[in-house]
Design a protein that fits this description.
The chain is mostly helical and 378 residues long. It has one domain: Cytochrome p450 (Orthogonal Bundle). 48% of the residues lie in helices and 9% in strands. It contains 17 helices and twelve strands. The strands form five sheets. It has a three-stranded mixed β-sheet with strand order 1-2-10. Helix 9 runs antiparallel to helix 10 and helix 10 packs across helix 12.
């Protein structure tokens, strides 16, 4: 998006939105931040689409996840799972993440070609979240395929079928864990309580699907986008390669520069509101373009330049407000460990094809590479 257009029109009406409904698009940083925390922007998709004709057959537990509800239901569900995704919980997983990372990088040939997406960015977070939830190793390839299909832009039948496959699988896994309890996160969710409150069966399955999908799709794109950004900015790459201890501080700028989530999940106005200086009527979808907002020149100078020395901690890549990404600490831990290992073990890594030949995935909400061919050299 042209900077001038965004500055003049950070919130504007668009001809079509989710389900063909007219809505509004938010591209300005201040306006996006406001929208993400405004309780008058509801995420209750079931309420919005109630009574509206649709040919979709998304599985109910996938359509009504914690991401698609408002307080008090959202507050209750998040409270029951939040302890599993604190910074401390992510820190306890670091040794395992490091082991998985090293095992995957051990397979990279010296002097050959690899696909960073297929050979690291996809399997690392899949293995970690499946291990965390307690998904058996034999089932992980199918689970990964269903998860990818849930984001297949322009293929509603494929998305719907994947939602049923994933929900059916998780229903069976929950039943199996009830028969044979273990100590994985899914086992803990089954027994999780907040006073007299606990999760219903549908809520368990819904949360399991959400945690599995959200727990690796965004991290996959985070790692791939970050490596590409560094390879396209040799000075910044050299800075981290020579000082790998600076990787943790660089993560926020890498997230801001190439956000793995390009558009926030569905929201609509429950009453007329004003975003920035733009009036938005009640009952319309509002699309929040996180990727565009993170590059708003009103927020940061030269936003289209990767600058690892800048303070980018206010970025919106993980969202903002009560729906901010629950798994942000784990995603950052995985990306930090992966980037540090790549830079240390393969300091001469470079692109195997020109940047304009890279293929990006066609997804509804994400921005990430379909593949990232690299030439490996130590």
């Amino acid at each position: 998006m042209a900077c001038g257009q965004r500055s003049q029109d950070p919130v504007r009406s668009v001809s079509s939105g989710s389900g063909g409904h007219a809505g509004y698009l938010v591209t300005g940083y201040a306006e996006a931040r406001q929208a993400l925390r405004d309780p008058r922007l509801s995420k209750d998709t079931a309420a919005f689409f109630a009574g509206k004709a649709s040919s979709r057959r998304l599985h109910p537990v996938v359509a009504r996840t914690m991401l698609a509800c408002d307080p008090p239901q959202h507050t209750r569900l998040r409270r029951l799972v939040t302890n599993a995704f604190t910074t401390g919980a992510a820190d306890r997983l670091r040794p395992y993440v490091g082991q998985v990372t090293d095992a995957l990088l051990d397979r990279w040939p010296d002097g050959g070609e690899v696909d960073l997406v297929a050979d690291l960015a996809v399997p690392l977070p899949v293995i970690v979240i499946c291990e965390l939830l307690g998904v058996p190793e034999a089932d992980r390839s199918e689970v990964r395929r269903w998860s990818a299909e849930l984001f297949a832009a322009g293929k509603p039948d494929l998305i719907d079928a994947a939602s049923h496959a994933m929900a059916d699988y998780m229903t069976s896994l929950v039943a199996a864990k009830r028969r044979h309890p273990g100590d994985a996160l899914l086992d803990r969710l089954i027994s999780a309580r907040d006073g007299a409150d606990q999760l219903s069966e549908d809520e368990l399955v819904s949360l399991a699907v959400l945690l599995l999908v959200a727990g690796h799709e965004t991290t996959t794109h985070f790692i791939g986008n970050a490596v590409l950004a560094l390879l396209q900015h040799p000075t910044e790459l050299a800075l981290l390669r020579d000082n790998p201890d600076r990787v943790p501080a660089a993560l926020d700028e890498l997230l801001r520069f190439e956000s793995p989530v390009s558009t926030a999940t569905f929201r609509y106005t429950t009453e007329a509101i004003t975003l920035g200086s733009t009036p938005v009527p009640a009952g319309v979808p509002v699309q929040i373009a996180i990727g565009a907002a993170n590059r708003d020149p009103e927020r940061l100078p030269s936003p289209d330049r990767l600058d690892l020395s800048r303070d980018a901690t206010g970025h919106l890549a993980f969202g903002h407000g009560i729906h901010r990404c629950l798994g942000a600490p784990l995603a950052k831990a995985e990306a930090e460990i992966a980037l540090r290992a790549i830079l240390t073990r393969f300091p001469a890594l470079r692109l195997a094809v020109p940047s304009d030949q890279l293929q990006w995935r066609h997804t509804r909400l994400m921005r990430g590479l379909a593949s990232l061919p690299l030439l490996v050299a130590r």
